[in-house]
From TrEMBL:
It is found in: Cytoplasm. This is Glycine--tRNA ligase beta subunit. Its EC number is 6.1.1.14. The lineage of its organism: Bacteria, Pseudomonadati, Pseudomonadota, Alphaproteobacteria, Hyphomicrobiales. It comes from Aminobacter aganoensis. Tetramer of two alpha and two beta subunits.
Amino acid sequence: MPDLLLELRSEEIPARMQRKAAGDLRKMLTDGLVEAGLTYEAAREYWTPRRLTLDIRGLTARSKDIREDRKGPSTKAPEAAIQGFLRSAGLASISEAHVHSDPKKGDFYVAHISKPGRAAEEIVAELMPAIVKSFPWPKSMRWGPASAKPGSLRWVRPLQSIVCTFGPETEEPVVIDFEVDGIRSGNVTYGHRFHAPGAITVRRFDDYAAKLEAAKVVIDADRRKEMIVADARNLAFASGLELVEDEGLLEEVSGLVEWPVVLMGTFEDAFLEIPAEVIRLTIRANQKCFVTRPQGQEDALSNHFILTSNIEATDGGKEIAHGNGKVVRARLSDALYFWNTDQGDLPDLDTLKSSAEAFGLDLNKPLDQRMARLDHLGVTFHAKLGTQGQRVQRIRELARAIAPLVGAEPKLADRAAVLAKADLQTEVVGEFPELQGAMGRKYALLQGESPSVAAALEEHYKPQGPSDRVPADPVSVSVALADKLDTLVGFWTIDEKPTGSKDPYALRRAALGIVRIILSARGSLPLQGLFDAALAQLEEGSVQRRLAAFEASQAAIDSGDVDGEQDVDNALAAYEAELRRDVIAAAGALKADLLAFFHDRLKVYLRELGARHDLIDAVITPEADDLLAVTRRVEALGQFLDTEDGKNLLAGTKRAANILAAEEKKGTAVADAVDPGLFREDAEKALFAPMNQAISEAGQAIRNEDFSGAMRALSVLREPVDAFFEKVLVNDEDLAVRANRLALLARIRAATDQVADFSKIAG
């Protein structure tokens, strides 16, 4: 079977785009091949900073001939329908169609369409120009004289050459000839930009990869990563150090080089007084280098760093390492200045006293000063939700309310909430926003804050993704919940909710974070109460802002006399009453909508953990606001339905529900209560007593949040329900007996509905 080799070579592709671009190229071409009737055995993509490559093995040389019978309209159909059929079938006239007969439908037209197969070379040559011109780069550019022409080629960086060869291993491959904006495909590529810039003629992939390797190009990105990390580990080990590994940086660096050469640089020991996170981020962000640490010391760094060059220098890389070291030292000098500045006093302390009083801050402490400045400057959080200072005040009140619910000391939660956003005004975070929270923790410890308070300053942002850890310290939990709840409730009040795939304020992530925190805390935290606490802060602030605006607009009414002042006071009081009525009216719908949003996040999370979607739907109700109780109920229900008792009870319950639904639809009378005096069969009597017992015990177990106990209470119904349906005819001729038996079925449904809506469970 023939193999296809494709290479698109350009100037340097940004590292962050390479992996996806190679995958896009593979998908676009293989999808096109399959749609054209070709098959292939395997396809693999490769990439370097200067090329995207595809190796497609076992591609069929020709697509199959296709014969299709396309049914058309009746021979008596209107002319317009017949003409439409001819156009769709590609027929010139009705004489090219065939007439078939059907005993019921009569005569109708059929087009026998034959399409001969096409050579793979022809198909690829047709597909590639369209793929190149429509390639989904996040950003692309035009270049050269042709860029002035409408519709000229766009590529991420100037496209320089195309290799496209095709053929079996036993024969000389052919070049699939096509052209894209003056760039014609061929069998010539080029090696490393500096070490081997000359032309290289290639045949198929194995030959291509070997020749490029000889020309100092490693085509396999994963192999480049292995080379970099192995050499970096060995180089660090030889110096008595160990590499601080960074998968994200490794991915980026492997996309910056075609021939990785690993070197070691140094900087002065004096810079090690900077926190390790700052050193690491400075070197990573500015020089794309790895840091090292003394062997066995997790929290310390050394003054050696690892860099990856794209060339083999004649001096062994000494000048490259020295040059990188100069830049690293300059960057670390800036970082050291930021670090020292953040621990000193602000120059404008006198202007911060009112903010310090409002938040109970100590202006002798650097972090307190930064929080006072954040409030004093009136930094906007959102135009409709006030300043950062106002938001911190809301989070503070909310954290104090949540603290007792999660076992946190309210005073510590209050202090942590007040300082939570203070590091936004530090120099280090201004330079490295990624260190937000982490620097707050460090500065808090330096000024003698409680370890729980310091931890909360970093952990209240967590979890920031599905794999991020959840805060465990009660103070961190209270501030994290307060921060996320204020965000969610706030944006709901101004109707800035996620729509479709758009979620600019990361509200889905915030809700999932709350879900994970609540489930990890393993305590009962009903959402409605949390919503009320968050809304109270937001609503009062909104009311006061709108009252102030209204009062200002009414100032003209006050002409200075007593009557004018009284008119303004009356108007203001009436407007405030109206505002508060509107707030109360809107709160119910807002909370219901926000709770439904949380239900969606909980469903997504539980499904990712392996829970059945039908069990989640069966358990959750529009009013369910205790997420931990919902989760435990799903777990208990799943375990119960895995037993024979559970499976049989599910079948019996669904049967009872179906009969009831059918009879209720027909308007059949159902008794309001079960009358034992109307029982005629032993199976009815045998079901009634355990039914009442199960309803009582299951209800009590649910009130005690013992959901496994509720399932055990229901399990006793398995045999009497089975016996009932086996021996009792529900639709008895006696209408009173029938209504009584339907009431008994309603009791079965009521018993199970305490736990879940069994009608939503598959099976």
